[in-house]
Membrane protein containing DUF981 (mine drainage metagenome), 94 residues
Amino acid sequence: MFVDTLTVMLIGLAMGLALGAFYFFFRAREDEKMLNSLIVPAFVVGLFDFIAGFIMSFSWPLPGAYNLLFGDPLLLFGLIMIMTSVAYYKKMNL
């Protein structure tokens, strides 16, 4: 069975961006209950993006420099999602 790594990574990126959009939507409505429900999905998607970017950065499954173009930004995006979800869980003032 063939699994395209780039497609899986872009799906993870889209899920992370959708969670970010939900965050801003619920923040504008000042709905703390819904904001707290986004913590676990944001952590899981961030962890998935971090691992996918890490694997892409070290295994180089794509031709040429496309591994750096897609892998490293996804790794950083996943790391940012993990850090912000943990900070929001601990009620840190961002």
